[in-house]
Amino acid sequence: FTTTVKKKTLAPTWDESFEVAEFHEGDRIVFDCYDWEKIGSHQYLGHAELQPEEFPHSKDYSLSLLPRQG
What we know:
The protein is mostly beta strands. The protein has strands at 29-35, 43-50.
């Protein structure tokens, strides 16, 4: 899924929801975050993860970015 681009902000927030069709018990959700660039490739900023035990529906989350793995 791709969210909307948040331009000209150092503290973006998203109020978006998605339905995941192929989600299985034990799966985690990973968010990859990029700095949008009008020209050239977007810069990878990091990722955030939600573990299955953190999934109560209709909850707001504040996640910290983790560095690229590998």
